[in-house]
Specification:
This protein has 114 residues and is α/β, with parallel strands linked by helices. The protein is built from six helices and five strands; from the N terminus they run E-H-E-H-E-H-H-E-H-E-H. It is globular.
């Protein structure tokens, strides 16, 4: 599986894959200006710690079940770099199905307006 995902692929996954976990790694200020629907916010600096949390603690903090190592994860940020680094960190922790939405929120918000 490639480490990146394109806009069209993400749109299809969001429509058809109820098990997809979409993680927004941007800052609180960036998220306040808009987000991809259905995403959970885990700031980039806390991704490592979040993925190491106990399942009950993760659910209490983020409101969803902690992703299993085989879960389909897609990370995104504003321009792609933090999402790429978060994807790499998740893969290092055994999340082999982690990918980065390289177009990031900047592409998503631009294409959603058209």
């Amino acid at each position: 599986m490639a480490n990146t995902i394109k806009y069209e692929e993400l749109k299809a996954l969001l429509a058809n894959n109820k098990d997809l976990i979409l993680i927004d790694v941007r800052s609180e200020e960036e998220v306040d200006r808009g987000r991809i629907p259905g995403s959970i916010h885990i700031p980039f600096q806390t991704v490592d710690a979040a993925l190491r949390m106990e399942p009950d603690d993760f659910k209490a903090k983020y409101g969803v079940g902690k992703p299993a190592t085989g879960s389909e994860l897609v990370f995104y940020c504003q321009a792609g770099r933090r999402g790429e680094m978060a994807t790499r960190r998740a893969r290092e922790q055994g999340h082999i199905n982690a990918r980065n939405y390289a177009g990031a929120y900047s592409e998503w918000s631009r294409r959603q307006k058209n």
